[in-house]
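Escalation from tier 1.

The customer reports that the assembly of three entities below gives different structure tokens on two consecutive runs. Tier 1 could not reproduce it. I'm attaching the input and our single run for tier 2 to review.
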Amino acid sequence: MRTPFLKCALAIIAKDLRAEIRSRELLSVMALFALLSVLVFSFALELDRAARAEAVSGVLWVTLIFASLLGLNRSLAQESDQGNLDALLLAPVSRSAIFVGKFAGNALFTGIVGLVLLPLMTVLYGMNTLHTGVIVTTLVGILGFCSIGTLLATMTVRTRAREALLPIALLPVALPFLLTAVRATKGVLSGAPEWQVWLQLLAGITVIYLVLCLLLYGYVVEE
Amino acid sequence: MTRIAELEPAPQPRMLRVLTALTALGFLATLYLGLFVAGTDIEQGEIQRIFYIHMPSFFGAFTAFGATVVGGLLYLARKNDAWDRIALAGVEVGLAFALINLLTGSIWARPIWNTWWTWDPRLTSAAVMCLIYAAYLMLRAGIDDLSRKRNFMSVYGIFAFVSVLTTLFIIRIVPETIHPVIVGASPQNAQGSFEATSGVVMALVPSLLLWLTLMPITLMWHRYRLETRKEASDRLMLQALSD
Amino acid sequence: MKPTRIALILLWLLLIGGGVGGSDHEAAVPYYRASGFNVPILEGWANQSGADFAQFALVEAQATIRTARVSAADGLAAAQSELSELLGLDIGQPVYSNKVNLADGTWQVLVFDIDDATTASVMSRRADSEHVVITFVERNPAARIVLLTTTQADDTLEDAAPEIATAVEAIAGITMNELSPAENITLPSGEWIVYASDIVTAMGMVFGNDSYMALREGEPGDFAALADAYNRTLLGFFITPDNSRYLALGLAAVFLILGTLVFSFGWRARSLRQGMELIEQLAREED
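Tier 1 run:
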């Protein structure tokens, strides 16, 4: 008798949330990193207003991706180190439900960081990043990035140099998200109408990656 | 001492030797066609001849990376180690071909576009493709457990192929690329200097076929045999140490 | 199917591919290609080209267009030596001289009145250690034809009217008021405007930031066709770039990468063998 898919996924999300509410370990690290990164970029790119407007979408996405990398590493390391992943695998649970649970948790935390980051950047960079287009792009981009991120973090967490290997394995594969998301964000901010095309492209890639991840996750966790 | 007998490399099958000879001959023959038989492009000059390697090498990488996807899928389905070795061979050979593609393109761009590199969508995508497969090799080296390694790398190889398809089709998605779509349809032909570029097809088609089939197959076969021997040797080494 | 047979079929496909590709070898040649330059072949003109120069003549108009590379100290000397080779005469000083920057370099524009019948218009520029000279000569006693190129005074304009005015004054010594209003004509080389009077016809077109002009005094004849042919030669002229060093570099890169790949196969096989020999030795010592 298998635990129903949704129930299982929700249980994993609830477990991650509960652990996070108690320890506040993940979110605080990710948010602090994101804040520092935005500040460092703002000092490093001490540019005139026009150049700053050009850079803003790049800064947003680079910050989000690195914050998300931190979170992914920690989230999967917790599972693996405490033997939780092995326990989950022993339980009569669908592999894709495990994926959905872990993925939703990671996407949720990164999404929160993203939503905190947007008003912050509006203040620091003097650009209105609280546009619906930017918010939608941010959320879709995070969904896509976290799907492949969860899958690859599950792999690298069981390798020798795991903290170093995750970015090496993930960044090139996730570049399609970075490229389309940066273009879409830039388009919204500069008022170029083709941002919707980029958003559609981003959504398309996200769907493809999500499906592939769901199908292949079982092979990554099985022994 | 039977296990030591395993150490002797199996003699190359006759087929492999034939293929190797054919590939070497074919490589020299297509080089000859491209360098001496095809006419000089009157607008681009001699550098245009690099195209007879540049485009075919991408398709060679396509074949090799395609073998990685097929190998990965079949490994996940059948759990036969041979498929994983094919996938690995595909990555190494494909990466070499992709680098050839990237470097020859860059060297062509220098006199024609007056720059070694530009962040054009297609060029960017091709560079990302190389990075992904380099990451494959690094990731693979970082995993100790053999069956876990095979599982992980099969999955990664399937994902990596997205970058190959992106490079191939990016012109349809992002039309602002300056990369020529088909050299045959470039303006100098519209102007009518066909005789000057005659032999383009004659030099290109054999080269394309060679890089699409013989080159990747032969090199991958050699790499496959090497991996088989390496795995056997690792096993024996482990045994010898545990004895 | 036997693998050997597949390989043979592949090789066969290779050869077939070559054969099919080679069959359209006999295409028309609209370009004359000499060592170091290319010019369009002028249809309807007699082709008198040699191995190292392109020469086209329109006999009924007594006009010749010739392109060649000449070794000479400067553009003027190159033009003079070209003209004396073409006409077999000693060439004096030009009646008009000017410089113009085109996309492919700085050209010297020269006009020579050689004798009562003969006028020559020359464009000349440096190419490596030599000069490229494009010459237009007409030997019709009933007409004097001059062809000029100058940079536009105002490059936002789309017609050559101001430059035509300057040229008409310099060459024919009359003002624009004496000519009829502009008339537009389309020729293969572009959109021209034409001004005419009883004795002078002036026409011009704009390409890039430059005005290309033609002036005729005397009988009209095939004036427009001559101007058009000369301009097609000028605009169609280009030198095939010499970039064979980059080709060598590219080939070196190909051989380097393939060589590294094959070498690494060999190297890894060798170290495997050495490792195995070590194990063998250990096993023997154990026994």
